[in-house]
Amino acid sequence: MASYDFSSPRLFVEAALAPGAEVALDAAQANYLRNALRLREGDGVLAFNGRDGEWRAALAPRGRRALALEVGERTRPQPDAPTLSYLFAPLKHARLDYMVQKAVEMGAGALRPVLTRRTQAERVNLERMRANAVEAAEQCGVLCVPRIDAPQRLSDALKDWPADRMLVFCDEDAPQGDPRAALLGSRAGFPGGAPAALAVLVGPEGGFAPQEREALLALPQAARISLGPRVLRADTAAVAALALVQATLGDWRDAQAFANEPSNRPIIKT
What's the confidence (pLDDT) of residue 254? Predict the structure, then answer.
């Protein structure tokens, strides 16, 4: 990211992006660029749609209030979508907004609300989640906007769990120890000594019910970790867990260093 353009505003659009294309902006986008950012005709914007990479575009007026983007050259190709999924018991309002934004920044490729026995907020505004995910992607240079899944019961999510996907679940009742060692040790049970994909699960603030913990522990693909001696709020636990998993098994790892570890396992791309 050293050569990344941090100075230009970024905008997510639904339209296809290609050299010479013109992208009409909706009223909210036009208001944001014109009135919030004070941009004028010809000013530069970086546009992305989650499919075609990132493109440099120029702002062009279309009538008194309408605006469009005139697309120029591509600045970054579209990367593969991250395979890291983030599963969470829904929270209320602002704290859920924060959790969604941080999960996007930490490299989650899918956001999946799961309803547990102690979930406090069972109604989830998927459109609001999507808006927060887009905003985080715009602000942090992310080109892959995560998929937003519909809520489902935790028991249903565990049914037919993919054999090659590790499910890292954070448990306040787990014995305290080195969570990195627990994650590295859990790799060995997968074909080839490493999972093909990763998922992180953070439960509700009241913790998992005994039956839910039993179901998770019975799942061969599950890796149980502790997040230390202090009680963390669910949104704080999300950041801690995602950072831990990315640094230990995910795309924060240096490929060469990982390959040279005694276990000699391949790096897991997320």
Answer: 59
